[in-house]
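Repro case for the chain-ordering regression, as requested:
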Amino acid sequence: MPETYDKKTIADLLDAKLGWPELHEMMSSYKDPDRFDKYISVLQDRAPWPEQILLPLGPHLFIVKKSNGDIVTKSTSGFEFGDYRENWKLKARIFVRDTDEKYEEIYPKLSHAHPEWMELREFYDPLDGRLLYVEAVPPGYPIVHNFEPDLQGFYEEWLGRPL
Amino acid sequence: MVAEVSDVRNMTRPPMGWAGKTLQEMLAESERLLVDTGHYYGVNKLSLKENDPIRYEKIWSRLRGGIVGARETALNISASPIVREIGELCFGLYTPEGDSITLSTGIMAHVHTMSEAIKHMVRAGYEEDPGINPGDIFTNNDPQLGDVHNADVQEFLPIIYEGELVGWAAGVTHETDVGAPQPASMPIGTVSRYEDGFIVSCQKVGTNDRIHRDYENRITTAVRTPFYWILDERCRIAGCQIMRENVLRVIEEEGLETYKTFIREVIEDTRQAFQKNLKLMTVPGIYRFPSFMDVPHSIDKGQMPEYAAVDSLMNCPMELRIGTDLAFEIDLDGANKWGYHSFNCTPSGIQGGLWVGLSQTLIPNDKVNDGAYLATKFNTPYGTWANPDNPAVSNTLSWMYLIPCFTGMFHGLSTAFTARGYVEEVVAAYPFTGNITQGGGPNHMGNPNGAWSNFEHSACGTSARYVMDGETSCAAVWNPEGDMGDVEAWELLEPLLYLGRNVRPMSGGAGKFRGGLGFETVRLVYNTPHQVMFNARDGHVFQCSGLFGGYPGATGYRHSVKNTDMKERIAKQLPYPTCDQDPENSQIDANVKGRTVVKDQYCYHRPDPHQEYDVYLSLIAGGHGVGDCLERDVALVVSDLNEGYLFGRFAERLYGVVAQQGTDGTWTADLAATEAKRAEMRKARLVRSQSVEEWMAAQRGRVERMEFNSAVRKMYRESHELSPKWRREFTAFWRLPADWTPGSED
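-- result from build under test --
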């Protein structure tokens, strides 16, 4: 029941290189309180740009601090989606599966939603075409702003350090 | 509907609460102290735990061990495969006011619903009337008082020591039939509570540890399978008795005051641990993950009242708010209206769903109890499906809405875990736990009024994790130890044979890591002249999405072949279907002929008549995916091809893997061609997509005119009417006039 893991273990975890026994042990154990800093450090080492990662939003999306102090959402490709408080999806490329034909490129017949009831919205990175998120909603549903972090509260009140 | 509060200050008997208090006074004090001090029962220091930790853990282990042992012993009294095979039962130990202290494994959602039922009995003055005495037995399956649906029947035994109520032992099992007009435990197509069948509303059904004869008589006449019900009742009572005796032994050995101190501390201990984990593993902020469920009752026109035979769509716009002050709030503001269908929820059921979700995510230690629940706040707006303003709505299959509802919490917490780096905990929620196969009619044992509920859907595929594929056919969100059960056990209960049970290809959602696969069963109606059958699962919608680019798992459909040639095939030893596998190359269609083929996405419907030798397909759901398909390890794609989990025609268009099948049937990938194909597909995505601004401009007119099908329009109209917040946000997003409305009823 380790209270901490080394940076390599965290890197292996992210790369899906941990075996099931090790992964299971990690899931069942009490959590290591220094995980966040080691995690950020691993991600920062891999980032293809210099900005400081403040908070990961997914495997390829990060809230970063630019040299001019602006805090923006940025992807692995280097695309900037604007102020981190805005919904990054609004700056992505969108492709909507709203017909049987489009659904059946990726699902067998009868195994997907009915296009009159629901559509699949695929949000792509505008630079490298990576699929960042799939939204399954009825037609007409406002694009969902999935996560609005209280970044300042997180850093200052929970981590006890300035943003 | 049922009197909630009855003042017991003028009781005709001495109060049975602690220190001369009535139970109502104890409950009021508990709630006041939580609000005033922020701590459960005002306990801000865990003195017993700090001063004598070994003793603290020992008492915990004895109580917890006793309850787990009670479950394992008691389930052998039941005859129902639902209880014995699947483990659809759970036991819990409660404080006198109804807060859970510890629980067994099993259907844990009920740990909190039973809490609500106990609190109802306290508030309604049961201490005075009908009285609470040693050996009393109370039963409840009323969702309005504390339950999810009436299929789950609860038993409560008071634990009384030297005249004081020191707690409650409670147990729950899922029944086979509830005595509704249509057979089975969760009939579909009911439009009000008055069609839900046998409902026992926190009733005293036994004294001196024996069930009243008149109650047994009532069961015998009220439900189709009294044999199972009565044995389940005895199973629950036996489990509760084992728990009760164990608690009384602990009190004898540890002392009453120590026991009282312990139960207060252990709940506060869990409340504090929950908040500690919240701060360690999450990020304050707002998380929004909506979910949906289709109710396509237009297929039942002519069989249901006109106002009920319509298509509906559930809107569950779940918002999870985590505050820097460790507030954990779940808000369903924007949810649409309850309906004339079987899927409405009560706040009690919603809280049960929340509780089972928390027990799999944020409750951090072995001391799982109501402490975590007490650290949360929940808004279920009045008038919505989550808190109907009509007390007579039907609830027989509330899980149909509850299950999708809490995918939002799992997605929100997984987003938080990703932000903090605890990616080993990330999972793309869970699939809908269906298809639920149920039915009834003359059975193979000669009973003309048989009824059955198959629970193999307890073994759905799990969703993908951040670092691995989901697992195949192993769990249900409401019972993490799910089991599909042996086919032989189900065949004992049901007049249907299993022709085959197989992993269902492509049932898990695609992604860098794909959802675990569900399975399919092919059933033959046998040894009965006729039988009505239900399906139940998501058909027209995905209940939610995957995560980080992962796709949702496949939706379901129903497929029955009626008036078949199966009798002839069996007699002549001709091929018959043992699997289905691919809806575009169905092995059922290839191996059985029938005069009628039902094959559509109407997975919720009134009972569908079948007769002997009809064939019925059940598709058990797979999980959702995580990450971009084009990042999936090529070796995993090839493995899926070779295992038969992925149809060859999808390898390239879904995963960008260029693969060939050799003459021996083995698939291999061309790595260089795959790399080039994937690069080409990423470029093609950019070509075929558009900016969100362009897309919104093209959609806005359609939205303004509500050019959607009737179910979608109805959903928007109801959310618009019920929630000013929804109205404000919807019109702001689409830049509609402030006075815009989605129109009047169709």
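Ordering looks correct now. The two ends of chain A are 32 Å apart (CA to CA).
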